[in-house]
């Protein structure tokens, strides 16, 4: 149904189309034009299809930047908006708890292969870096840490970040003079999403990698040194060689959402030590025979890292329990509505 290899001028070729993606479309029973969401909005979204760029409506689907979709194109020449008929199952989704606190999942980017955690060296918060790495690992994509603004600090930041990012590459980059950009490019592939706080240099890095100013940038505020939100949408840009970039707005909050696998992947050192604790449900606090606490006492493990791990686990468990309670409440409410409707039906017969 869908071609495995598209000509070089094919619009989707610049946005990650591959034989593997073609197979996913071929498995769908829905008829329509293949496309990818490059910017998701509330009312309408922007997509790139095999026929070119197109504004689309969701038609009941919750769209996210990076989604692969099947689109029904406008039926008449006067209509310029297409309709999304189906969304392919997502892979490599960046998820967090909704910032509204409503115990809901928020997907920041879909079908990603590499997550670039952008960290400004002069304002490193180790706990926040670990939290972002959990987000990255939980997506199933490969994390890479881009350490920016290293010229603004004399602290051994690189070594500290490497220590808390096992399994991930850490690259020092400077978008202004281009140093580290080739090394960073060698470590990314497929669909690449940039995450980090405002002012970390995400948009500047995206501009440098793309070779042109596609995102607005601004200096940090002088008063408190915090970044300004210059990126307001999650938007996808072609990088060449089949790679695409997704820049995201600065993340003030990164809440856990069913991130048990991500926590385990981000803290393999603690996870390995925990296998040797006397109790399988050891909380690494006051239990006897705790291998994790023993490693801290012998100086083999940072106590701060253990506390960060404990905090993320507690938060993840709380969010999961709250989400389960919310789901049970919704199911109970739906059952009551259905029951009242059935009683009304038989009463009014």
UniProtKB/TrEMBL annotation:
Positions contributing to GTP binding: 148-151, 196-204
Keyword check for Hydrolase: yes
Every CP-type G domain range: 101-254
Heme as UniProt keyword: no
Cofactor requirements of the protein: Zn(2+)
Start and end residues of each EngC GTPase domain: 110-252
Binding-site list for Zn(2+): 277, 282, 284, 290
EC number: 3.6.1.-
Main location: cytoplasm
Keywords: Cytoplasm, GTP-binding, Hydrolase, Metal-binding, Nucleotide-binding, Ribosome biogenesis, RNA-binding, rRNA-binding, Zinc
Cofactor: record remark: Binds 1 zinc ion per subunit.
Localization annotation: Cytoplasm
Family: Belongs to the TRAFAC class YlqF/YawG GTPase family. RsgA subfamily.
Binding partners and assembly: Monomer. Associates with 30S ribosomal subunit, binds 16S rRNA.
Its biological purpose: One of several proteins that assist in the late maturation steps of the functional core of the 30S ribosomal subunit. Helps release RbfA from mature subunits. May play a role in the assembly of ribosomal proteins into the subunit. Circularly permuted GTPase that catalyzes slow GTP hydrolysis, GTPase activity is stimulated by the 30S ribosomal subunit.
Record-linked NCBIfam families: ribosome small subunit-dependent GTPase A
Record-given protein name: Small ribosomal subunit biogenesis GTPase RsgA
Organism: Rhodococcus chondri
